[in-house]
Amino acid sequence: MLIQLIIKNLAIVDSLELEFDQGLSVLTGETGAGKSILIDALGLVLGDRADSSMVRHDQQRADITACFDLSNFANIQQWMLKNDLLDDSGECILRRSINSNGRSRGYINGQAVPLQLLRELGEQLVNIHGQNTHQALLHAENQRQLLDAYGKLTPLLNDCNKLFNDWRKANKEYQQLQENSSDRIQHIELLNFQLSELQQFAPQEKELEDLEEEYQRLSHATQIMESLTKIQQDLTENENYSCHQLLSSATRELEELQQFDNHLENLNEIINNALIQVDEAASEVRHYLASLEADPERQSELNERISAYYDLARKHQCEASALFQKMLSIEAELKQIENSDEHLIELEQKISKLQNDYVKQAKQLTKQRQTHSTKLASQVEQHIHELGMQHAKFSIHLETCSDQSKPLKGGLEQVNFMVSTNPGQPPGLMSKIVSGGELSRISLAIQVVTAQCSDIPTLIFDEVDVGIGGGIAEMIGAKLAILGNKAQILCVTHQPQVAAFAQQHFMVEKSVADTNKTISSILPLNSEQRVDELSRMLGGIKISSKTRSHAQEMLNQAQNV
């Protein structure tokens, strides 16, 4: 869960450090005070797109750091271990740095990471339900994702989608082979001509490298012979100054000196060993010189073969050293084309099997969706009734695709949320039936139910209670508090009935430090300050003793639920 958030130089926030507890935490404040900054900051540190306008005026960089406790979340720890990001402390520290030029960098436990990796981790740590979530819920694809998440059907869905992707790949290959059949004869003729030319030349693996090495040796044979002859003389044949003569003289003198100092025996042995090495080197030089001779005819043959290598390589548009591999690849391509009929039959069989496996797996997914859709619809409908829509009916319709034999990504059906808001009214698509106020309540009910099934440690509700008040707002507060027993809940709200249920209450306020500097700050409230804030939310500008009494009573009742 989120335990700390540090914000520096972001928008109208100068410097801010907040610590969070378990359960339900609320964020309140006047309109325009900057409540959204907290959500924006979390979004950025979790990988959202950033731009230079987010950096505070006259500052070079904005920094956001979020610290999460992962001690009870083995699945997230496993992900971090897999990506070599796990810290022994059991904590996860995310940091996002945004420069005034618009560039930004992300860090996980001090390691710089791509934003995509930051997003992958962020999706496992925090789920943000914003006001736009209402509209997102109107799309069938999002409705399907919610049902699958509720039923924990992701493994089944992934299996289906893998079969679908394999089927599509095989089918595409099959279509490509069929399309190429008209050009097959001409292509085979071309490949046969190219292969015949290469086989006649008969390149060998690493042959060019050996040829060029031998050509270099023959090209410099005279220089090599002259240099080695001199070396041979220096080693053994110069009677006065050869290495052999000098070392032999040294050993004789040391043998005479050993009678005066036995320690010289080791030195004499070392020089004797050197003498043996010199003799061996001289022998090697003699043997090499005996085998070396200038061969203009062989040199000409080598030059001709090497030139042919480079001429043929240009013709086949490859490196000269790759001619052998080019010949093998043409052979392989010819074999594949000549056996294309057989390959087409194999692909047909493969496509048929993948299709059957997909349908079998997709039907299991359908069965599970049918089971969980009934449960989800029942729970959502119950919450909708509690939110003041007593006569509303909510159901989930699985619309079967017309051709079940053809694989589709996501399964054999489209998931549609159906709603009837008035008695006697037939159910219709949620996107076409509900009004704005009804949509916000239905959306909230869906979010509360599906959030209870989520493994994500921190859930954020950003003003999802807009347009709702009175007893319904109180019911929302109670539901969020209950949800806070399972996960950490952060809620931005304008409703005092919701705020009263919080275990932790933050207030956002905006102030002007001087004529040119506006600062937004977030303060944790104690019990007395909470009464003041709830009174403001209830009573507006003038706060009477009755308002304060009402706020205190609201707070007492909420904490006793």
What brief labels describe this structure?
Rossmann fold, six-stranded mixed beta sheet, alpha/beta, 561 residues, single chain, elongated
Provide an overview of this structure.
- By secondary structure, this protein is of the alpha/beta class.
- Among the domains are: about 230 residues, P-loop containing nucleotide triphosphate hydrolases (Rossmann fold, 3-Layer(aba) Sandwich), CATH 3.40.50.300; about 150 residues, no CATH class.
- About 55% of the residues lie in helices and about 20% in strands.
- The chain has 20 helices and 15 strands.
- The chain has a six-stranded antiparallel β-sheet with strand order 2-1-4-5-6-7, with helices on one face. The protein has a six-stranded mixed β-sheet with strand order 8-12-13-3-14-15, sandwiched between helices.
- Strand 12, helix 17 and strand 13 form a beta-alpha-beta unit.
- Helix 19 crosses helix 20.
- The longest helix has about 45 residues.
- The model has no long low-confidence stretch (mean pLDDT about 85).
